[in-house]
Design a protein that fits this description.
It comes from bioreactor metagenome. This is Lipoprotein. By secondary structure, the chain is mainly α. The protein has one domain. It is built from 11 helices and no strands. Helix 1 runs parallel beside helix 10, helix 2 runs parallel beside helix 11 and helix 7 runs antiparallel to helix 10. It is elongated, with a radius of gyration of 23 Å.
Length: about 300
């Protein structure tokens, strides 16, 4: 499910915009290409926010094991290994929060697909209500982690109940009307989730932690070599981790920029659809997001090649 996060969100809005404008014309080739580009970049983006925290945990683990191996006292060595485990769990908690954020947006996307695609489900009203409840449950889970400013719950489930019970969703016009009710709530959700991710990633403690890991990687390996002596395989591993640690802040900055671009692009699309403006005028926001995610993707591909 994680790999589908955000996919087809733009396609959903494009269909909604066409329906709301009351016209019967299909999307142009250029518009469809813009939709495809957006959906493709969203696929790539889905794992990036949690990657930073998981990679920091891996670098700390390797670095601390070198340090622990340099200790001659059994008690101190075991204490260091226990500390490694605690840090890894704290980073996994943050990564879990970012993944829940993305799952919330994935379920929101599914709810919109139920409205936008006429033949997708037999009972779209029931699916909309179910999605609303699922999103609320995920928001409660996210807030319980206390990683950032709490996200408002109840917005989507309330809108879903109104739509699910109050509209006959078999007619395309009824679905279009339902979309106009659902989009403002959806944009509120997307804005809050993206801002929570931005707040988390921009926090000065994260930057300080990255700087700390870079320094400790060198210091811990010095301790290891001083006690255990040189080893060519360990030297290669150290060089690989040193390159990765140097790129941690670049990964963080690029992820922040991509999240911000998504937030702005989504907000612009939602506003313009509500006003009945054509998709063509939204392409700049789409291109901005695609450009930022492509930059982030290049960083990650380079990162993964290092092993």
């Amino acid at each position: 499910m994680r790999n589908r996060i955000f996919k087809n969100i733009l396609l959903i809005f494009a269909i909604g915009a066409t329906a709301l404008s009351g016209g019967c014309s299909s999307l142009s080739k250029a518009q469809l290409e813009g939709v495809a580009t957006f959906a493709q970049t969203c696929d790539s983006f889905s794992a990036y926010p949690s990657l930073l925290f998981l990679e920091m945990a891996k670098i700390r683990e390797e670095s601390s094991i070198w340090y622990a191996s340099s200790l001659t006292s059994p008690e101190k060595r075991v204490a260091e290994l226990v500390e490694i485990s605690g840090f890894k769990k704290s980073q996994e908690k943050i990564a879990k929060g970012t993944d829940i954020s993305l799952k919330i947006l994935s379920d929101y996307s599914s709810a919109l697909k139920s409205l936008a695609h006429e033949n997708r489900v037999i009972d779209p009203g029931r699916e909309i209500r179910s999605a609303g409840r699922a999103i609320d449950s995920l928001i409660i889970s996210f807030n319980s982690l206390k990683l950032a400013q709490p996200v408002t719950s109840g917005i989507i489930s309330s809108a879903a109940r109104i739509i699910g019970y109050g509209a006959q969703l078999n007619a395309s016009r009824a679905r279009a009307n339902a979309i106009t009710k659902f989009i403002p709530s959806g944009d509120t959700l997307v804005q809050e989730i993206c801002r929570s991710l931005e707040t988390l990633l921009k926090d000065e403690s994260i930057k300080a932690l990255i700087d700390h890991e870079q320094k400790m990687l060198v210091n811990n390996y010095l301790s290891y070599v001083g006690i255990r002596g040189g080893d060519i395989n360990e030297d290669r591993r150290f060089c690989s981790l040193l390159e990765k640690s140097a790129d941690l802040d670049k990964l963080r900055s690029s992820t922040v920029t991509s999240v911000g671009s998504l937030r702005r692009a989504h907000g612009k699309m939602a506003a313009q659809i509500k006003e009945g403006i054509s998709l063509f005028e939204q392409l700049e926001a789409i291109k901005e997001f695609g450009y930022e995610v492509e930059k982030l993707s290049k960083i990650v591909r380079k990162w993964q090649k290092r092993g």
